[in-house]
UniProtKB/TrEMBL annotation:
GO molecular function term, any single one: oxidoreductase activity, acting on the CH-OH group of donors, NAD or NADP as acceptor
Claim: Transferase is one of the keywords in the record: no
Entry-linked CDD domains: SDR_c
Native organism: Micromonospora olivasterospora
Pfam families: adh_short_C2
Keyword presence, Oxidoreductase: yes
Domain of life: Bacteria
Alphabetical UniProt keywords: Oxidoreductase
Residue ranges occupied by any Ketoreductase domain in the UniProt entry: 3-185
Protein name: NAD(P)-dependent dehydrogenase (Short-subunit alcohol dehydrogenase family)
Family: Belongs to the short-chain dehydrogenases/reductases (SDR) family.
Amino acid sequence: MGNAIMITGASGGIGAAVARAVAAAGDAVLLVDHRAEGIERLAAELRSEGRQALAHVADIADEDAVHDTVGAALDAWDRIDGLVNCAATMISTPLTETTLADWTRVLTVNATGTFLTCKHVVRAMVGQGLGGSIVNLSSISGRVGLPNQPAYCASKGAVLQLTRQIAADYAGHNIRCNAVSPGSVRTDQLRTYLAAQPDPIAAERQLVDSHPLHRIADTSEVAAVIVFLLGPRSSFITGADIPVDGGYTAV
């Protein structure tokens, strides 16, 4: 077995792509999501390929559930070498139409959930004394203001600052913490967003045109950067935010 990596939001999208890429590199993976079906199916798929994969159903906004999830990883492999926080939710509404319930839901999953998983994984990493690498999924929405995303932009901005704070606080324990900020990526979330637009084809064209590379990313392209940040070739990188955005934030 290589390293032991915990991945939240692993039932689909970028999280599932990360799980496949990490497992292909020879690492053991603990797949975490509040939806059982997706992670159990993926874990079974990976095991059928000879990989070490476990599924653990948990709500990352519930601290007791996060504590139990970290315990499950330690029970299985006696250590945690890496954490990838992909779990997130998004509500697209103007500020004046965003309810307190909407705001609370997005901040709770995206910001509080990331805080809780980092808190308990870092505690485990410090205790085992082996260092480790954490990668938090932020977004271009955490770097720039985007229309109709007040809660999502705020939550992803919080993830960026939390990443930097952890990097500064735990470098002495050889724990690295970095963020990845994707632009538009072909996920179910993006497909749902496009389907809700008055003209989905025009909406997709606008997204494509907003990225200087003039296309939408595949989940595997984001996963490749995350795998790099987890591994030894990025050993002198911490507190960084890597934009995987086709040049969106460069212009």
